Amino acid sequence: MKKIAIAADHAGYEYKEFAKKQLEGKYELIDFGTHGLDSVDYPDFVHPAASAVENGDCEFGILFCGSGQGVQLSANKHQGIRCALAWMPEIAELSRQHNNCNMVAMPARFIAKELALEIIEKFLTTDFEGGRHQNRVDKITCK
């Protein structure tokens, strides 16, 4: 069973909880918070989730905030993370196929919960194509 890190700020909290309920039994979900609707700073939850993916404790990560931007930017500060901002399943699919992304961020204020679930499922079930894309992915990380 794939082990998945999941995190959100207050704007994404309800989406995180919805996703957890829908995905339980299919994936092992590790919840990095937040655990309520009180205003919080998203990096406090994203960095531990991204570290878990980066160090191999979790295979993938799922993130939510209002726009998806803050959580995506925070996750991408980690050298071993490639986090895509996805608002439709096709973007999640391409982020896996072409960019070998290991985390996905979604904008809770702009998509329906059911669409978020479709995005997550597409992201978690799509394989990296490798080939010509591997060379490009290898050039993403600054050394």
Automatic annotation (TrEMBL):
Gene Ontology BP, a term: pentose-phosphate shunt, non-oxidative branch
EC number: 5.3.1.-
GO MF annotation: an example: ribose-5-phosphate isomerase activity
EC supergroup of this enzyme: isomerase
Active site residues per record: C65 (proton acceptor), H98 (proton donor)
UniProt-listed SUPFAM superfamilies: Ribose/Galactose isomerase RpiB/AlsB (SSF89623)
InterPro entries according to UniProt: RpiB_LacA_LacB (IPR003500), RpiB_LacA_LacB_sf (IPR036569)
Pfam families: LacAB_rpiB (PF02502)
Keywords attached to this entry: Isomerase
Annotated binding of D-ribulose 5-phosphate, by residue: D9, H10, G66, S67, G68, Q69, G70, N99, R109, R132, R136
Family of the protein in this entry: Belongs to the LacAB/RpiB family.
Protein's UniProt name: Sugar-phosphate isomerase, RpiB/LacA/LacB family protein
Species for this entry: Cloacibacterium normanense
